[in-house]
Amino acid sequence: MSSEHPEQPVPSTPQVPHRISVIVPVYQGRSTLPGLVAELAPLTTVGTTPAGRAYVVDELVLVDDCGPDGSDAVVRTLAEEHDWVRAVWLSRNFGQHAATLAGISASGGEWVVTMDEDGQHDPADIALLLDAAMTEQADVVYAKPSNEPPHGAMRNLASRSAKWLVGRMAKGAPAADFNSFRLVLGEVARSVAAYAGPGIYLDVAISWVARRTTTAAVPMREEGGRPSGYDVRRLASHFWRLVLSSGTTPLRLVSVTGAGAVVLAPLVALVLVIGRVSNSWEAPGWTSTMVLLMASTGAILFALGVIAEYVGMAVNMAMGKPLYLPVRDRRDGPLGRDGA
Fold first, then answer.
1. Region class of 152: left (phi > 0), else alpha (psi between -120 and 50), else beta
2. What's the average model confidence in pLDDT over 263-271?
3. Nearest-CA neighbor of 75 among 24, 115, 113?
4. Regarding predicted confidence, which is higher, 148 or 316?
5. In this structure, are residues 245 and 200 in contact, taking their beta carbons and an 8 Å threshold?
6. CB 219 within 8 A of CB 146
7. What does residue 325 show for φ and ψ, rounded to 5 degrees?
8. Distance between CA 304 and CA 258 in Å, rounded?
9. Region for 139 from its dihedrals, namely left if φ exceeds 0, alpha if ψ lies in -120 to 50, beta otherwise
10. 178-205 per-residue burial string, b: 16 or more CB within 10 A, e: under 16
11. Count of beta carbons in the 10 Å neighbourhood of residue 163
């Protein structure tokens, strides 16, 4: 549900400020991270939300996800310049959701805010998310873009369609509200980070444990003048992980397809026999046979593919494949001894 209720006045007695940890997964942030840190800096002293609630950003956790543009050097510099900026280093590129969970695990705030590195999320809007959480008594608040997200018409349409589909498959998961700019109760976020396994879609995992979820309308900005890190292949993988994380509904659809084929096959056979006996067609039905064969074979292969994906996820977990692996800064280890 969305937060559209008028704000209730906050008591004027001295308040204990809400303490917030901001998590930013970093992949291509060399040009945008300094600006993001500059915007967050004023929030590290106690301020108030539009509804008068006291809050402060205690820490910014930058998770280096081994990107291609030298972001690690910027992360290192920012962590040295600001005592409220912390760096988490991953052993290789694990992806946005895994990097976000790594940062959440390293956080300590009462609330956790996750943001993108590209500048499209305005840190000042954290106050709006907090007001929505308190007004609605929600564990999770997603930013709801008040304008069209700056990704292009086709990508926005594909995103809405994917979320609609998953919303129908994953009961209890508000897929239409999913957004990478989110505020989560700290203990809920860290619990999700503790048990999430390989291949999990972060927002689906949050929906399993969050008692109440809401949204707050905020504007989205342009992506800082750099190309998106998501190409068609990554977007397709992102969508497929969302589908698999939604539960066993795809497997049930496979079962329904198989049951439908079992019911349909005798009917098709009966129609063909009747047509043959009554001489409704002169030539043998080679075309219809091939079409049926191709359709049934395609359905079988698709079903096997879906099952194989689930088996693969289970095997990865059974073999102990980590969701992410934090390490120390390479500059401080043996790889940094040559000054590289």
1. left
2. 68
3. 24
4. 148
5. yes
6. yes
7. -135, 105
8. 11
9. alpha
10. bbbbbbbbbebbbebbeebebbbbbbbb
11. 20
Within 13 Å, how many C-alpha atoms sit on residue 91's CB side?
6
d(CA 203, CA 268): 43
Q: Token match 């700290």: residue?
A: 186
102's tokens = 């790594």
Cβ atoms of 46 and 71 within 8 Å: the answer is no
Residue at 18: amino acid letter = H
Secondary structure E strands in the chain? 18-26, 47-48, 54-64, 85-90, 111-114, 140-145, 182-185, 213-218, 326-327
3-class state of residue 185 by DSSP = strand
State how far the alpha carbon of 85 is from the alpha carbons of 21, 23, 61, in Å. 10, 10, 6
Spatial separation of the C-alpha atoms in residues 133 and 128, rounded to whole Å: 9
The tens digit of pLDDT for each residue in 239-265 reads: 666 666 565 566 666 666 666 666 666
pLDDT tens for each residue of 52-63: 999 999 999 999
Amino acid identity of 131?
D
Residue 168 CB-density burial (10 A; 0-12 exposed, 13-18 middle, 19+ buried) = exposed
Contact 86, 62 (CB under 8 A): yes
Quick one: pLDDT at residue 32? Answer: 94
